[in-house]
Amino acid sequence: MTDMNQIVGSHDIVMITLDTLRYDVAKLEEENCPNLCGSGSWEKRHTPGSFTYAAHHAFFGGFLPTPANTDKASHVRLFHTKDTGLRTHPHTWLFDAPDIVSGLENEGYRTICIGGVIFFTKKNKLAKVLPGYFQESYWRMNFGVTNPRSTEHQVNHALKLLEKADPAQRLFLFLNVSAIHGPNHYFVKGSSKDSVESQRAALRYVDGELGRLFDALRKRGKTFCMAFSDHGTAYGEDGYEGHRLAHEVVWNVPYRDFIL
């Protein structure tokens, strides 16, 4: 496990949620995703929530996806709020705040959210809650699920912010990638229905765009990156469609953390 007490304050921190990415899809595409998996492989984990809104509240509280095993020794959290009375690991960073975003802000981080799916649009009061964790939050129509080039536009916006950012100030950059969320059928030519194959194609597209972001982050210095899914989705398994339901294709998610 990475010692987060050595990371916080010395590294930029990036959290990328690959919205709706299934674990089995991520594993099938590992060899085709050099940016996300060039230095390792996906770990199977369980999400704390079956849809975006619930899962992200948990993530920002420090509850990242949990290793999908019964070995409690491996269930060590990177972040944990102080004074809970619960036992923590020496490598866990303890924050004195209700969430990791404001906890990092208290440590001098500039906190930035680049939204994707509907819960980040800020179009109504509900859609302002998750972006409201951050000092700065951004959403455009072309960041959303209906744009086949959404990740390109999200990364372009991130690059503009990085170009103007103070190199001496640490950043916490959060990116909610919308392209893998449905509709994704347009990533397979001639397809009119979302499927495992179209989600695989969407993931390959996303990986290609993230390479530009990772290159820019490397130029700034050391970056600790967390990339994972908030939940999966069902494409007809056992009669289920979609998410916000209790099926293994929804609860099993891919997780990786690595230093750029």
Order of helices and strands: HEHHEHEEEHEEHEHEEEHE
Q: Please report the distance between the alpha carbons of the first and last residues.
A: 16 Å
**Major β-sheet, in short?**
8 strands, mixed
Cα-atom radius of gyration: 17 Å
Specify the structural class.
alpha/beta
What does this structure look like?
- The chain has 260 residues and is of the alpha/beta class.
- Helix content is 28%, strand content 20%.
- The strands form 3 sheets. The chain has an 8-stranded mixed sheet with strand order 3-2-12-9-1-8-6-7, with helices on both faces. Strands 4-5 form a two-stranded parallel sheet. The chain has a two-stranded antiparallel sheet with strand order 10-11.
- The chain is globular.
- The mean pLDDT is 96.
Features:
260 residues, two-stranded parallel ribbon, 12 strands, 28% helix, 20% strand
Summed up:
This is Metalloenzyme domain-containing protein. The chain is an alpha/beta fold and 260 residues long. The protein is built from eight helices and twelve strands.
Question: Secondary structure elements and their pairing?
Answer:
Blueprint: H1 4-7, E1 12-18, H2 23-28, H3 34-37, E2 43-46, H4 52-60, E3 66-67, E4 79-81, E5 93-95, H5 100-106, E6 110-114, E7 136-138, H6 150-164, E8 171-177, H7 196-220, E9 223-228, E10 234-235, E11 241-242, H8 248-251, E12 252-259
Parallel strand pairs: 1-8, 1-9, 4-5, 6-7, 6-8
Antiparallel strand pairs: 2-3, 2-12, 9-12, 10-11
Helix pairs in contact: 6-7
